Amino acid sequence: MTYSLPLIDLLLRGYRWFEDELLSRLDADGWPELTRAHSLVFAHLDLEGTSASELARRIGVSRQAVHQTVGELVELGLLEVVPDPTSRRAKLVVLTPLGKETVRSGHAIFQELEDALGERIGRRRVTELRRALEADWGPPTARP
After folding, report:
1. How far, in Å, CA of 23 to CA of 79, rounded?
2. Residue-range definition of the domain harbouring residue 76
3. 141 vs 69, 137, 138, 144, CA distance in Å?
4. Is residue 11 part of a domain?
5. What is the pLDDT of residue 52?
6. 83: in domain
7. Is 137 within a domain?
8. Hey, which of 32, 44, 70, 71 would disulfide with 58, CB 3.0 to 4.6 Å?
């Protein structure tokens, strides 16, 4: 009997392929050196800004971990923390102009990587993969 990896492992391997190449290319292009933790913050940040507690919830880490990572990105000039216009006590994490440029570069790199993947495994397979991942999978079912 042949053992095959669970789908989740395959998805994570694909994710890491994209992320590793993204971080490597951004670094090669002269952007500040980013980590996987930085990448996760960018991946979960809304364009209009997101609270640190919401980022922590989306990423699945503690608020302290998010605050540390956001602080690093603030020091790099990619993010800033500003008052939330809808709540006097709340703060939002938002992109700086440099952060927006980094995101634009990242999106261009992702498109290049998707094209490269199409060359490697076939464009039709990439299109089918995209369709499968874009489909509504419905909510996870809770087991008793």
Report:
1. 17
2. 7-118
3. 32, 11, 9, 10
4. yes
5. 95
6. yes
7. no
8. 44
Is residue 78 within 8 Å of 99, Cβ to Cβ?
yes
At 40, list the tokens.
Answer: 């996760």
For position 51, what pLDDT does the model report? 95
Q: How many domains does the chain have?
A: 1
CA pair distance 55, 44, nearest whole angstrom: 6
CA dist., res. 144 & res. 60, Å (int): 23
What the block records as the tokens of 22 is 């993204």
CB atoms inside a 10 Å sphere around CB 109: 18
Token pair of 98 as six digits? 């440099």
Which tokens is 24 given? 């490597």
User: Would you state the pLDDT for residue 122?
Assistant: 97
The mean pLDDT values, 10 residues at a time, for the chain of 144 residues are: 88 95 94 94 95 96 97 98 90 96 95 96 97 93 74
Rounded distance between C-alpha atoms, residue 127 and residue 47, angstroms: 27
So what's the pLDDT on residue 112? 96
Which pLDDT belongs to residue 144?
A: 67
Using CA atoms, how far residue 58 sits from 6, 48, 63, 67, in Å, is 23, 16, 11, 14
Helix (H) or strand (E) holding 32: none
Name all contacts of 105-108 with Cβ < 8 Å and 24+ positions apart. Answer: 105/26, 105/29, 105/31, 106/22, 106/26, 106/42
